[in-house]
Amino acid sequence: MAGFVPVDPFDIVIFGGTGDLSRRKLLPALYHRDTDQQLPESSRIISVARSTMSDEENVQWVRQCLIDSLGDDCIEPEVWERFAHRLHYLTIDLTGDDGWAQLAEMVNQERDRIQVYYLATSPGFFGPVATRLGTLGVIHDNSRIVLEKPVGTDLESARAINREVGAVFSEQQTYRIDHYLGKETVQNLMALRFANSLFEPLWQRGAIDHVQITVSEKLGVGTRGDFYDRTGALRDMVQNHMLQLLCLVAMEAPTSLDQNEIRDEKIKVLRALRPISGDDVKRKTVRGQYKAGAVDGETVDAYRNEIGNGEPGKESGKDSGTETFVALKVEIDNWRWADTPFYLRTGKRLPTKCSEIVVQLRPVAHSIFAPDAGSLLPNRLVMRLQPNEGVTLSLMTKEPGPGGFKLRSLPLDLTFAEAFQLRYPDAYERLLVEVIRGNPALFMRRDEVEAAWAWTDQIIQGWETQQVKPEPYMAGTWGPTASAMLLDRDGRDWRDPVDD
Ligand code: BG6
Fold first, then answer.
1. pLDDT-flagged residues of the chain (< 50)
2. Which of 85, 179, 241, 366 is catalytic?
């Protein structure tokens, strides 16, 4: 296993410090890195949020967050004491003037060290907070800004954010997070493709029939109803996570792992995506929204009733036209992928939580086997990002024994947890360390984000102009029937991730 090399002393300021992301991901990730003694003694975690809280109350609140996320036994006294010492809290309403001077005073106590400003807020604050940090005069060469996805809500707003943030922080100092890029199996995709000679000759239209990318969740929108209803699955999952996965599968081999080499290859894929507009919007996209149903045997409510719940004062979204499911047929106009579509689907309240990439090879050219030998299934390479991270390759084999030639598809299975016997770090652990180290390779460059918006904006506009409303699907199913039809029309079907 790779050892843990401590990072240089740093301070991290988390805007949105009491929010969902901070509670569930950032604080637990920093705690894990501290457990592995990767954080220097003097480094500080400064949470910034609107509510009034003392440092002591913040320490208790963080302790509870860790217990909620990591379990009762996560609090090891020695680690906790070290971690609690790092915690500071500042009350700042990001739209107001109070509290900024205290922030400047606090970060200036350790002026020259690495400073990470993490914006775990809605994108509307990215530009204003960057500008404010600029006027406070606290930014220097060792400062970095981290922007949570989504960067904007469309191309125009993304450009405005990039411009405003870019006026204070250089591109090298700007880290646009897509946490899928920090997932271990996504990293492994690079190893699989570029550290094995087996795949490259097959990685093209002549050998691959199509690719499927599924990111399914059992959860509904939880307490994020307000945000989600303004966002929808296309902006929340496709514009970023799913397009990033598609790029890593489809890109040419970079000449090295250098930050710009990989990103230069990804942007070529984004620019080669065939636009989905006009009549294609109805033929190549499916929008869905969940109705009440059952997930894992538990009855769950419809999206329209769920949004607003948990947020006092918010009305239920009876008329909401937001999609909680999207399926797309994506074509890439280049030599490698012509006539090899990529099918993408993602949704909430689906039967299982699973992220996987399925590379379906073409069938054999001619069968030499008798009809009663059984079906000759094309080979499939399945890369599971979660759960049970690993790779399987289905191969046709002969059933052993006498009594005729019977064929059977069997998986060659590499489940990483079994192979490596270790805890898989959360993506945020890796990404936070990369920010502190100053390595932007796993983050989205400005042109990537803008190219991804340019492509998704056309779909959103198509939905609006052609009045494509989400089709209802029952919670606990694989989305509207139109999703199955999307592949059926091409003589294909979705792989059911539950069938392993
Ligand atoms: C986030 C989305 O980016 O990714 C959420 O905003 C989604 O809606 C989450 O639930 C899924 O991440 P993961 O790592 O659980 O697959």
1. 1, 310, 312-313
2. 241
